[in-house]
Specification:
The chain is an alpha/beta fold. Helix content is 55%, strand content 13%. Strands 3-2-1-4-5-6-7-8 form an eight-stranded mixed sheet, sandwiched between helices.
């Protein structure tokens, strides 16, 4: 479906460039269907050289020429870029925001018009095409819009559609912030390996590969994690001794609390964004 759409990417930082890479490498679209803008001319030169896409420093030009406009920018500058481009946004265009922590309600309160809006919450793993992305739709986005958005983000990992917009805060707490939790776990496992006599290099490789392999096993078998846990836990063996220690240390409860804390923080930031965006409404 994307092959006949012009895709405009406003922002070519980590997320924007990862999306460009995924869209082209997966064959979802071609380089000549992508137009990018960024404040950094040097960044644009690198993107153009690497992917052969059209580039510009003019955000308005991107909006004018595109069927799908992706705002892949930091939340701190989202309001300013929306103001800059607002007069050229209309129902003919699908508008996708991946600005972290910016709810659809904030965008809608600022733009104050009917638009086909999608909010996407990817995580950092899109950089290696293993991202986890949740997609939520505004009132005027249709089923085809959702399919187009999912096709974009499936090119850099896996995506889900949320019917309930308010659950995006939970997504932020779980998969959005989740890589940070996993990095901490990998680092701790590597430390444990070093304590037991392994080299740092070997311990880090083994701990990260163990996380990767376990995740792949879960996805490919479709088995419940408890079932897989039981399959590697022998009576009186090493795994059950380690699991007992993890449960005693409250790992399960700590992870649940971490997701809850991150979710609540996301709600607080989102409410502040809605207020700030409403205060800076552009004229229709």
């Amino acid at each position: 479906m994307l092959n006949d759409k012009k895709i405009g990417m406003i922002g070519t930082g980590n997320m924007g460039s990862a999306l460009i890479d995924g869209l082209i490498r997966s064959g979802a679209t071609t380089a000549d269907n992508i137009l990018c803008s960024d404040a950094s001319e040097r960044q644009l030169e690198q993107i153009k050289e690497k992917y052969q896409v059209e580039t510009t420093t003019d955000n308005v030009e991107v909006v004018k020429k595109s069927d799908i406009v992706i705002y892949a920018i930091k939340p701190q500058i989202m309001a300013g870029v929306l103001k800059e481009t607002a007069s050229h946004l209309n129902m003919d265009k699908l508008i996708i925001s991946i600005a972290a922590g910016v709810p659809l309600a904030a965008i809608e309160s600022m733009l104050n018009r009917d638009l086909r809006l999608i909010r996407a919450m990817p995580n950092v793993a899109v950089a290696v095409r293993e991202g986890a992305t949740a997609i939520a739709a505004g009132d005027h986005a249709n089923e085809e819009d959702v399919k187009l958005a999912m096709e974009i983000f499936d090119s850099v990992g896996k995506s889900i559609f949320l019917k309930e917009n308010y659950l995006m805060d939970a997504i932020t707490g779980l998969s959005g912030s989740g890589p940070a939790y996993i990095f901490l776990i990998v680092d701790a496992l590597a430390d444990a390996g070093v304590k037991m006599g392994l080299s740092r290099k070997d311990a880090l490789l083994l701990s990260s590969q163990t996380i990767l392999g376990a995740a792949k096993l879960l996805q490919e078998t479709g088995a419940h994690p408890g079932q897989l846990k039981d399959s590697v836990t022998s009576p009186g063996g090493t795994a059950i001794a380690g699991l007992h220690t993890l449960e005693k240390g409250g790992l399960r409860t700590t992870l649940i609390n971490a997701v809850e804390a991150a979710t609540n923080r996301s709600k607080e930031l989102g409410e502040a964004m809605i207020k700030n965006f409403a205060d800076g409404q552009p004229q229709p």
